[in-house]
Amino acid sequence: MSDLEKGLGAIALGWWRANIGMRDQPAARALSARLRRATLAAILCEPKVHEVAQDLRMGRADAGRLARLVSLLAEVREHEGTPLARRLGGTEPVLSPLRFQRLMRAEGEELTAQLRRAIVMAERQCNVAALAEDLLHWNEGTRTRWCFHYFGANAPDEKDDSEEKSQ
Predict the structure, then answer these.
(1) Which CATH number characterizes residue 26's domain?
(2) Among 63, 84, 134, 138, which is most buried by a count of CB atoms within 10 Å?
(3) Farthest CA pair distance, the chain
(4) Across-strand partners of 62?
């Protein structure tokens, strides 16, 4: 895995913090509002979107993924350490198991709409870097990890804290 691949989430988090994370700033609120409501073409007309695209080394072929990424990051109000799937699930899930299953089956625009609702249900708080990584690499592996996180477990390839402490 290249240094860029390791740092995609960190790059997205840095961009989020600099451009839309500080909602007490009028420019951040305005950009966030435009990104949440925009069409693909309107998103691609935003200069700040091209900054993150360049940092992430995304090109014309990645326009759809880029638009999904920035529009969903614009929904997040607070960065915190817990991944979105963990915030949605657990012993008292805020997103019902049936809705979570529907989210895991979603593709394209339906996926974006489902994730948008999920972020709102998680009180617009999650780990921005982890969300960005997942959005950029949304595949069966990502869905599998989300399933484990939703049900409060570590995915088989993740170490839990007790394993890390014992080594």
Answers:
(1) 1.10.520.40
(2) 84
(3) 51
(4) none
